[in-house]
Amino acid sequence: MHENSYENSHENSREYDYVVIGGGTAGSVIASRLTEDPDVTVAVIEGGPSDVGRDDVLTLRRWMGLLGGELDYDYPTTEQPRGNSHIRHSRARVLGGCSSHNTLIAFKPLPSDWDEWEAAGAEGWGAVPMEAYYARLRNNIVPVDEKDRNAIARDFVDAAQAALGVPRVEGFNKKPFTDGTGFFDLAYHPENNKRSSASVAYLHPFLDRPNLHLLLETWAYRLELAGTRATGVHVRTKDGEEILVRARTEVLLCAGAVDSPRLLMHSGIGPKEDLEKLGIPVAHDLPGVGENLLDHPESVIVWETDGPIPENSAMDSDAGLFVRRDPEHAGPDLMFHFYQIPFTDNPERLGYERPEHGVSMTPNIPKPKSRGRVYLTSADPSVKPALDFRYFTDEDDYDGRTLVDGIKIAREIAKTEPLARWLKREVCPGPEITDDEELSAYARQVAHTVYHPAGTCRMGATSDEHAVVDPKLRIRGLDGIRIADASVFPTMPAVNPMIGVLMVGEKCADLLRGDA
């Protein structure tokens, strides 16, 4: 295994056919697919260490221990007048990216999600052509294993079905759905609770390929441009050495919805006025960079249980529920994760106390209407960018109302057997809070993120001036560079987006092979 193959460390530049910036969810896929051709050399620049042999990363049930730790870029949120200003956005600093860090809930985007992309100008990305990419994924995607199906999670599924009359779903990826409850599909190996992340599935089996070069703990801080062509990227190794990594064919930017626009802006590619204010020389005025920041905000309602909950679980949030309140809506318009833990990190700031034993339901907005932005506050690349999600700022308060509906629905499920017998009392917001305005204020103040930032380099038609990339993922007005990660999402899929990002990686590899 040649993870840090700094062959000629005395030289300060190297050259490869392709340079992939970010060894995360999409970058791992692209590097793996490109190096299937032994004549193609690929460098992967990853800011974090390898995940090989790291049980703290590879064991799925340990995911919560990674939040805010040494493998987390841990981005704060700007002041949110209508939401929670204390949200920390985890972005993973490790091979495999967020697929090495998250719960690996695995949903194929719904046909209505892809068709919405196509309607937004992403020609060729509709449901029919995209279906083929799901079948190619190398990850082990399976429903939560029987042995991991916790008794209280089973009873949640039964109660949700009884209370709401939604279908029970066994295998959410088998066919499109508008509502339903059940255990999730996960990208994991149930026999040992190990991840089937992008790095495990796409890179670990191929680390001995001589044409695959992983530059780990190596940070990309500025793209190299020759006129309108991207020719490489400036990086800093963990020893502080600065190297120019050149791409003979193309640069692939796969740093995610925060760091892809951040790297572009530090390279002078972005909204001209913003860059000029910071004294960054403008190389290419591209107003859409950093705009259209999407997320799945969710709130939380917590119950104390009568005693301890059985220990078995895949990752403590193994089951969930989808509801469609509006029959005109293309897919589900409300989602819940069911946590087998009392998830009180945010309510505690309002004075709530964490019960010793408890469970939570998290009403989530599948198709939020609010849009935010990522922007720089300094010309210094080491200063974290600002993330302003503008949570709950949509005009008709659709997002806020969705969470209020969610709390009401969660309460219906909680009083329904067989779940009701487990629950001792509602801890937060507390049964005395029933008024819509009070519920909304609570729901927004304790809202958290499901860590799904997307959309900040969105894809659109070649004529769309605010699109950052075209339907072939090429940056508008530049040559030799594409973006492939969640930043290209024009709109948010109704479901957890990781599988969508893997499919973006597979499609990008196809586009590259087609053009080569």
Write the layout of secondary structure elements.
Elements (H helix, E strand, L loop, with lengths): L12 E9 L3 H10 L7 E4 L9 H4 L16 E2 L11 E2 L21 H9 L7 H10 L4 E3 L7 H14 L15 E4 L1 E5 L4 E2 L2 H5 L9 E4 L3 E8 L2 E8 L5 E12 L2 H11 L2 E2 L1 H6 L6 E2 L11 E2 L2 E5 L13 E5 L10 E6 L18 E7 L8 E3 L10 E3 L9 H17 L8 E6 L7 H10 L2 E2 L31 E3 L14 H18 L1
Parallel strand pairs: 1-2, 1-12, 2-9, 12-24, 13-14
Antiparallel strand pairs: 3-4, 5-7, 6-17, 7-8, 10-11, 11-12, 15-23, 16-19, 16-22, 17-18, 18-19, 20-21
Helix pairs in contact: 1-11, 4-11, 5-9, 9-10
Gist?
Its cofactor is FAD. With 516 residues, the protein is of the alpha+beta class. Helix content is 22%, strand content 21%.
What features would you describe in this structure?
Residues 256-270 form the Glucose-methanol-choline oxidoreductase N-terminal domain. Pfam families: GMC_oxred_C, GMC_oxred_N. This is Oxidoreductase. This protein is α+β, with helices and mostly antiparallel strands. The chain has a single domain, classed as 3-Layer(bba) Sandwich (FAD/NAD(P)-binding domain). The chain is built from 11 helices and 24 strands. It has helices at 25-34, 55-58, 111-119, 127-136, 151-164, 198-202, 256-266, 272-277, 398-414, 436-445, 498-515; strands spanning 13-21, 42-45, 75-76, 88-89, 141-143, 180-183, 185-189, 194-195, 212-215, 219-226, 229-236, 242-253, 269-270, 284-285, 297-298, 301-305, 319-323, 334-339, 358-364, 373-375, 386-388, 423-428, 448-449, 481-483. Strands 1, 2, 9, 10, 11, 12 and 24 form a 7-stranded mixed β-sheet that branches. A 6-stranded antiparallel β-sheet has the order 6-17-18-19-16-22. Strand 11 (229-236) and strand 12 form a beta hairpin. Helix 4 (127-136) packs across helix 11 and helix 9 packs across helix 10. The longest helix has 18 residues, at 498-515. Mean pLDDT is 96; it is low at 1-10.
